[in-house]
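Limitations

Structures in this collection are predictions, not experimental determinations, and the ligand pose is part of the prediction. Treat each record accordingly. The example that follows, with flavin-adenine dinucleotide as the small molecule, is included so readers can see exactly what is and is not provided: the inputs are given verbatim, and the output is the predicted complex.
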Amino acid sequence: MDFQYDEQQALFQSAVREFVEAEVVPNAARWEDEERFPWDTWHQLAELGLCSLALPEEYGGAGGGKIMLCIATEELARGSGGLSVAYLVSCGVAMDGICMYGTEGQKANYIPRCAQGEVAFFALTEPEGGSDVAPMRMRYRASDDSFVLDGTKTFISNGEESGFGVVFATKDPELGHRGVSAFVVEKDTPGLSVGRRERKTGQHCSSTNELIFDRCTVPRSALIGAEGQGLIIALESIDKSRVSVAAQALGIAQAAYDEMVRYAKEREAFGKALGRHQAIQWMIADSATELEVARLLTYRAAWLIDHGNLAIKESAMAKLYASEAAGRVCHRAVQVYGGIGYTREAAVERYARDQRVTEIYEGTSEMQRWAIARQVLGVK
Ligand SMILES: Cc1cc2nc3c(=O)[nH]c(=O)nc-3n(C[C@H](O)[C@H](O)[C@H](O)COP(=O)(O)OP(=O)(O)OC[C@H]3O[C@@H](n4cnc5c(N)ncnc54)[C@H](O)[C@@H]3O)c2cc1C
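Predicted complex:
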């Protein structure tokens, strides 16, 4: 049993942390205010090898695995929730289907592009529902040499910045999950347009948009896996990626906790530092404990995945616990800051806003509990 990073992981973590301290932390609040994707920083990330980190070596990736991806995501999230979601979608869930089920041609084309910093999207959610995705509305028609996609996807991260992405559509809603197929689509394909940008609570530097497919014609080579395999590809991609959202929640919570501890030492009330008052000590103690539990669950799930397990239950537990614990930690951090914690003067209000969605995307907390219970009870 080993509860610490190995030498390579520790070196990697300190390199990413150094980068985040220098390039992300000082700029994150401004990116949020301007609702602007930090392209320069993104290109630096790619140059540092972060975009290729978890991609297969045969196609220009670094083959770093889930633990490394979680380290990178956690550290980026300490600096900027928005940057970290762009990262975990583009270099994680959007690429998983291509890496697992893609043809040689798709892998040879898209993996190097992602590794070099091209941004990708993953389009599953529809206006009618994100938790229950099987009754899909978006349709496709097959012809001899192409597929024609029609419909709307909603809440798509990287909607504006991406150059390509994966989208799911059904041949016939009557076929249920057996009708769904997955396609990789270039963003500049005629018939694909970027719709409304969501006005979110947080993570403003990352775009979240509608994607509208109107007689969008893609070549047959755009099909990922076999026809009818789409829902399996979608769910396996999310199962694989979910632990990175746990790492993201952990990073946001760590940032909030660090600020809370610093302020508790600095600020005085009733003649002594806030941290000398028991009520504040309890908030810090509970947060420290919950962070520790979240970290153990997250990296254990990542370790299981790196050792060839699907780790569906463990990833769901990690995401459920880390995201909800992060909510409690961010809430306490705002409380310890008092009035200033409710203003843009303090970074803790941003962390609290950025954290909230970690309980929603890539499966809500309710869906995680459902997944865990199904595994425990052996229900298919
Ligand atoms: C900022 C942001 C970025 C996102 N990025 C992406 C992306 O890149 N790609 C993508 O495809 N999607 C993305 N999403 C969509 C996200 O995955 C969905 O919002 C999420 O899965 C929930 O779906 P929904 O919003 O339709 O809620 P619904 O499915 O309508 O659920 C509403 C509520 O009901 C609960 N509920 C639903 N069914 C049950 C049940 N059986 N039992 C108990 N409770 C239930 C849910 O837990 C939730 O609390 C993003 C969302 C946000 C906010």
